[in-house]
Batch of 3 targets.
Target 1
Amino acid sequence: MATSTSTVLRFQRKVALLIGNQNYCRSEDQLRHTINDVDDISIALRNMKFHVKTEHDLYNSEMICAFSDFSNIIIDGDLILFYFSGHGCEINGRNYLLPIDDELIENDKVKRERNDSHPMELPAGTYVVFACSPYQIASDGLLTERNGLFAKHLLKHMTKPNKDIKQLFRTVTNGVCIESKQKQKPTRIDGLIGLEQIYLNDKSIHINNGNKKTKYKGSSVLQ
C-alpha cells in the first residue's frame, strides 16, 4: 500500500515478452523445463492483466525478429517485462542470450562462462534479475518437477497482490538459496529510482477517511 514516503507508479499498459529456448540443436545442450517455465509464467502474467507474447525454441533470426516486433509495440507509459529461459553467456563483459542454433554454445570456454554475468549499467527505471550468481549454474529443475528452480519460486510468489518488486525478488532469492543449499544465488541489479511502490499484481485499495474515500492504486515497473 502506498505511504506518505513512497511514490505509486501508474502505467497505461502492462506488456511482456517471454522466450523459452529448450530444444537446442546439440542434444547435450538441451534443457528440460524452460518451455514449461515461460508457459506457466505467461498464464500468471495474463491473470494479472499483462498483454503477453510467448515464444518457444527460437533460432537466431527468429529471436531478432521477436525483439524487433516487441519493441515496435511499446509506447510511452508502458510497463515492460522480459523473461528469458535458456542458455546464456558472458563474453568480454557483455551478456548474451543464446538461440537454439547459436554456435557459441559449442565452445567449452563459453559453457564455463555462460553464467558469469558481470555488473551492468542500467537506465533509470529498470530492474534486472539473473537466476544465479556469476560462475554458478542455474538449476533446470528435477526430472520429477515441472519447473526450474528459479521459476518455481517466482511462480509461488509473483501473483501476490501489491507485493513490492524488490520484496518479491528478495523472497524468491531466499527460497532459491535455501532449496539449493546456497549453490544457486540469484543476482538482482537495481536501476529503480526513489521510493516507488512497484507491483506486478496491482490492486486498488480504498481507505475510509471520514466521509471521504481515498483510492490508492499500486503499479509495477520491471524491464
Target 2
Amino acid sequence: LCRYDYSGYGQSTGKPTEYNTYADIDAAYKCLKEKYGVNDEQLILYGQSVGSGPTLDLASRLSNLRGVVLHSPILSGLRVLYPVKRTYWFDIYKNIDKIGLVNCPVLIIHGTADEVVDWSHGKQLWELCKQKYEPLWLSGGGHCNLELYPEFIKHLKKFVQSLGKSKASTNGSEKSKVEIDSRNKPSESGPSDTFELAADLPEVSRNSLDSRLEKSKKLNKPEKSRMSTDRVDRFRKRKGLVW
C-alpha cells in the first residue's frame, strides 16, 4: 500500500497545480517500480475527488494495470462549477476525456447526496468505462463520509478479491481478464442501522484540494458565453481552477 502527499501538502514542497499532481503520481509510480520492483499487473490505483485526476491520467497511460478505484470522482474541474457540455482548453483534470483510455476494470463509488461533486459525475464516468465493474451508489452519502458506510468496505473488498481471483486463474503471460458481476445492474445502498466502521475511523480534517472545490462552488456565478484569452488566468484563479 503506497500513499503520498500532493506537492504543497504534508511535508511536501511545491504547489499543488494540475501538472504538479501529475508529476507527483508519476514519482510514486516510479518509486514502486524501481525501489520495490512492483509491476503494473500488481497495481490497483485509487483516486478520490480531485485525486481522480492524477489517477486517471496515469491509468490512461498504462495498459496492464490490475484495476482502478474512483471515489467521488470528477468529470473535470470546470464541470464541478458549471454544467458545461464541452471541454474547454483551459479546463483541468479532464477525466471525461481519459476514462475511455483505461483498459483495466474500474470501480466507481459515489454518494447520491454529494454536495461538492454531483453524483452525475460518477454515473457519467461509469458509462464511459471500457471495463465496467458494478458501481456503488451510496444513498444519502456525501462527499467526505462514504467510508463510514459498511457497504463501502464490503464492495471495495469484493472488487479487490475479484481481481485477485482473475489473476490467479490465468496462465503464464496470458493477459488477465476480470469477471464482472452484474455489469448492467448498479448497486445502490443506504446506510445501515449501525455503523461499526465509525468507531474505528478518526475524524479527519481534509485540508486538501477538495476544500478548494467546495469553496469555489459557493462562489459560483453564471457562465459567460465567451471569454478572451487575456482573461483566462484571472478567471481560473477567481473560480478556484488554479491550485
Target 3
Amino acid sequence: NDFWIDDIAIALHKPAEPSGGATALLLSPEIDLPVENSHFIDMTQQAMSSIDLSIHDVLTQGATDLFINDGKVQLMVSGDEGRQLILSDLLPDGSDNGDWTNVGNVRVAGVEYDVYHHSGYDAELLVSLAIQITLDNH
C-alpha cells in the first residue's frame, strides 16, 4: 500500500518529515494482534466499533519514523464517527512505565490525526480525529 504524506506539523508547529510506507492491518475476529509488519489499523474497513490498544501493541506493531520523522515508534488507527479506542499505558506484565498524552495533531495524506505520545517510551499513536479516545492511564 502506498501512502502520501503532506502538511505534517505536530505540537507547537514543530517541523516533521515524512518517511516510510505503511501496511494496512485489516482486523477481524480471526486476526489477533500482533501481526507482523502491520503499522496501520483501519477500523472502518472491518466495521469495528471499538478497539483496545496498549503501549505494548504500539511498540510491537509500530515502526520508527513511519509517519513523523522524530525517532519514535509509531502506529496509526483510522476510522470514522462512532468508533471508540481505549488506549492503555500498561505492559502485559501489568507494569506502568509512563502515561499517554495528546501532543497535537498531524495531517497524513490529507487526513487529520491526533498524536498521542507515551512518556515512558519513544512511542506515538496517530488516531483519526473522528475516533473517540479513552486514555486508560494508571
